[in-house]
Amino acid sequence: MLGRKQAMVVLASEQLWPNLHGLVHWMEHEGGLTDLCIYYTADEKRSGGPAQRLRKFCNQLYPKLRVYLPPGPLDITPDAVRGQIRRWQTELPDRHWVINATGGLKLMSVGAMECAELPDTEVVYRELSGQWFRVSKTPDGLAVRPFQVDPSETDAISVQHLVPLQFDAPPDAWWTMETPQPLPILELVRQGIQNRWNWKAMFAACGLDSSVRSGFLFERFVAACLLELGIRQIAMNLILQRPHQVLQEIDIAANHRGRLLIIDCKLRTQAEENRRVETLTSQIRQAYTTARQLGGLGAQLLLVRPGRAFSEEETQLAKTLGLQILDRGDTLEFFRKLAAFCNLQGPLPDQLQKAQEELDRAKAAGSLEALAVSAVFFPPMPSEEPLQTVLPVSNDLEKLMQQLGQDWTAYEIDGRVWIRGRIPSFARGQTCQEYLYQKLQEHLPSYATVTKDNIWISTQKTTYCVCLELPSDSSFLTRLRQHLAQFVGKNLLGS
């Protein structure tokens, strides 16, 4: 430590990141600290408990730092805060004092800021945006002056230290977690495309252990992607437990630029989600609670659900709660989306860029998803009709069109390609077949022959079905997939 001794005062609250950020900054970049004084109130959940966890954290991270707490909880009034700070200054003389007024209730912050007039004392405050200010007393009142604290200054702190600091766990509970390992991301993606995203087959083909469930393999893959993005403090398979009971499970957590990044991964398809008691809406609400418990207001949580399409209502709920989602429709942009979630700008690292290019090529070839395989039809969901000799598939095809946000779907049966679509209301008159013929000729490639005799119209004149005549060479089916990719999420017949 350079120069005279320095002491810091913090106001304990549930949002411990501002205290942590200021502590690390002064320890590493402002000459160091000899003493930390933690002010807390009688509110055990919002102040007393966080104060004890912060003391334990400091003892682990900075064992030479002396930590002081009042012998009992104090009041929230400005007078009580100012009085305790002056007592600490009397008990610990010959120090320069830094008062972090960020935590606690507003009245407590007022008391801390009023200490700007005391000798050898500076007051600092961090806004929710992350901007830091120095607070000084002038004849006209309080004045503030911004200063910079790099958000990455806390990046060296492990998740193993951060999670117990923020999470209010029972005294007899403990955390276990695993450290992720690098993986051959590019080769796994190539094997995924080749093996239809069978994760056990993908890992085995790369000579990796594939003995655990596919969901765990996927979590390892996502965590390895974070390593490839340059994030170093990552933990996976975090479990909070007490004897004979699991209290909390988190798939992936990472410390990056002053935030805890949490990723909730599920490989389950929509059909599997619908068979579970816990709905996706419940998962979203639980994820929000977990994010706040683990990382405070600055935490960011990403729900990763390949093989699952979020409904408009589910998407809006996640957005309202400040959560991000990556569902089936985003999976072909997986590496770009993951980097954006981590707030990483610029080009992807080389291996991830090449892996993303593999997904780009799959998308151009007609793929609609990656990382998982969705069920087109949804047994054993309850059907509208009992099983019968002639299967009614219209409803399932209609659901698929709705999920994809388009007015058509194409499917192959025994080597023949069919297109089923909706007929616009203005085209349901006597010229309907002529209209369909012209539009299909206009939007389909020349090698996909359409004849009027191969167009069938439903009895209600609301949908049509056409059988395409393709050359026998299988490469034309590949070309057709590539051609139809431009209409994904759009109307084939136009508005």
% residues in beta strands: 15-25%
At CATH level 2, the architecture of the largest domain is 3-Layer(aba) Sandwich
Instruction: Trace the largest sheet across and list its strands.
Output: 3-2-1-4-5-6-7
What integer is the average pLDDT?
90
Total number of distinct structural domains: 3
Structure classification: alpha/beta
CATH class of the largest domain: Alpha Beta
Q: Give a short account of the largest sheet.
A: 7 strands, mixed
Low-pLDDT runs of 5+ residues are 378-382
Rg over C-alpha atoms, rounded to the nearest angstrom? 30 Å
Number of helices: 16
CATH topology term of the largest domain = Trna Endonuclease, Chain: A, domain 1
The share of residues in helices is 25-40%
Through-space gap between termini: 71 Å
Spatial shape: elongated
Beta-strand segment tally: 17
Give structural attributes.
six-stranded mixed beta sheet; Trna Endonuclease, Chain: A, domain 1; 16 helices; alpha/beta; Rossmann fold; 495 residues; Alpha-Beta Plaits; 3 domains
